[in-house]
Amino acid sequence: MVRWVPMESNPDVWNKFMKEMGVSGAWKFADVFGLIPELLMWVPQPVAAVILLYPISENTEKLGKEMLEETKVVSDNVFFMRQTVGNACGTVGILHSLLNNSDVISIGETLTKFQSDCSTVDPTARAALLENSDVIASKHAAAASSGQTAAPSADEKINLHFVAFVRVDGYMYELDGRKPNAVSWGPCQSDELLSKAARTCQAYMACDPQEMRFTVVALSKTD
Predict the structure, then answer these.
(1) Is residue 72 exposed (0-12), middle (13-18) or buried (19+ Cβ within 10 Å)?
(2) Domain 11-221 sits in CATH 3.40.50.1860
(3) Which residues are catalytic?
(4) Domain edges within the chain
(5) 0.90 surpassed by pTM
(6) How would you write the pLDDT of the chain (223 residues) with one tens digit per residue?
(7) Cα–Cα distances in Å, from 201 out to 110, 118, 216?
């Protein structure tokens, strides 16, 4: 398996990656410091995506499997890709966030071409396109090395995982490249993505209430 150096959950790192990829600076990732309504009010709006970092455990795997089994229909307009590159879940989460919002976010020439190349192939083939993209791999490596903490080696076993939540055609979807398809978390109005994603993140956190390694970031329009 091809393995990349893990990217830390750091909005500054992610925003640098997006800038290097040519994504419009009008949209940026920011930390979500709390999931109660009073704290969610501080997150800039509109929100295009929410990304959760969580530790993989028996309990979170059980929740993910239950929601996957409940998902009966996924909109054809959802951009979803599998993940075959080890430690690339941060970048996959960013790509899921951007490519499901390319109608409102200027994603730049590189990602526009990547999206076009993906348009005629299935999620597994999309993963192969990412695996063979020297441009995205190099930008990922540069961003991963710019974090506040020393980046672990590509071969180090990491049990933390990123998933993205986006709204497409009136539903909120969880996008996790380890799963065979997008997971539906139910109807979602245009202004409900942050609040509904927050409740879903709380469901994951409730799986392991003693665990402290959960983080949440939101992709918001800031200009």
Answers:
(1) exposed
(2) no
(3) 89, 161
(4) 11-221
(5) yes
(6) 788 888 888 999 999 999 999 999 999 999 999 999 999 999 999 999 999 999 999 999 999 999 999 998 999 999 999 999 988 999 999 999 999 999 999 999 999 999 999 999 999 999 999 999 999 999 998 888 876 554 444 444 557 899 999 999 999 999 999 999 999 999 999 899 999 999 999 999 999 999 889 999 999 999 7
(7) 31, 29, 8
